[in-house]
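Note to self: keep these together.
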Amino acid sequence: MNGATGLTIEFENIVSDYSEPKKKVLYYLKVVEQARLQELAKYMKISKMAVHKHLAQLQKRGLVESFEIREGVGRPKVQYRLTSQSKTIFPRSYGALAVCALDFIEKNMGKKGVEKVLRERQVELYDKYYERLKKLSFDQKVKELAKIRDEEGYIAESKKDRRRNGIHTILEYNCPILEIAEKHWEACSTETELFEKLLGAKIETTHRAAKGDAVCKFVIKEKKEGYL
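Structure:
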């Protein structure tokens, strides 16, 4: 029995008294981190009222919480996410669990569903990273991006090419999402797109841990336009 299958069984045992829709909610929120009611309804292919009922029951158990996000004028939007208490129902091997969750989404929504989930996650990361990069020069942005990734467990560093102006390299010696990337290549491609958007640069990924390399290597070429 492989690890992913074992984790699925473990998860099923822990939440054996949960209905299938509630398991879908937990899986989905585990991957995307936060979602609106209509997004969950579309994913689960049931009415918003039905999803709301499942969410309300999960909230009573302390596993899901709601919060508001204001986007421009008008009423704030309600989002849902897992609570810290929800960690107790998931196996500790989060990488393998995320693979299970993405496999689950792929089965129900196809590859496009997996890509959509990962892209939504990258949008959240963009907003988070952007705040630390927006006022920096290009060279500083590259260094700061490497610092952020290092803080997130990637053991990252940046290097500037002294012979070629505008060329940098980011090296990541650890991949916390390796189990995901090995199964779902979209995790790597959306990551590269995120870096390009943040830096306003053209990036070539020459090495990938998910492909057996010892390091993930991003060769970054500055664009003369497209700064943050």
